[in-house]
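re: ur msg from earlier - yeah i can do the zinc ion complex, just paste it... oh wait u already did. ok heres what im feeding in:
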Amino acid sequence: MKLPLRGIPAEIPTGLNVTLTGASLHRMGTDTFTHTKSCMCGLGQIEATVSSPDHRWPSAYNVHWSYSIKCAPCSGEYMVDDHGLVFRRSEYAANRAAWDAWYKAAQDYEATPEIAGLKAEFAALLARLRTKKAAHEFLTLHGFTTDKYGTFTRAYRDAQSYAEGIHSSHAPTMARLLGKDPSPFQMAITALEAQRDAIPSVRRVMSAHPN
Ligand SMILES: [Zn+2]
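and the outut:
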């Protein structure tokens, strides 16, 4: 699974400044061009290599970029991602590990008997609503869905499968509607949010991309 990086926009190179010479336009096969930038320590280089099939008009869809840090000290300390963004390896690894831990904690919470039990009771409550229309109105009123009725009714099979698919962030609401104390659920969710908010950010050092 590819995890999102906090604070890093999904920067995909577009509007590529690739100039093909007249000769290369007529050669069969793949053209490659290498752009270089000075590395972080200034003693080596970061290469950005673009390869494109022999198309007359290269576009973002038919070119491939690859990046390489040609400096031993810098390649030990830094890395380049698929978009040409340069990060400190230590920061990148810490960020990834923290996201992995958070995803696992969130999944573990979702799988607790407390959540399963709550969903089972909520399914019974939902099943008492006799029509899909009534279920849709109830679930909309309490913030479980923002779907229009048509969309909702195509997806809604029965109360039990619907309840099983409810995310644990709705657990406090489910508890309240069942006349239970929502605070244990709210505390667990608040703790997960705090864990997510504490994930260390990873700063982009530079872009290896020529643009
Ligand atoms: Zn260097």
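cool cool. The chain has a mean pLDDT of 86. ping me if u need the other ligands too
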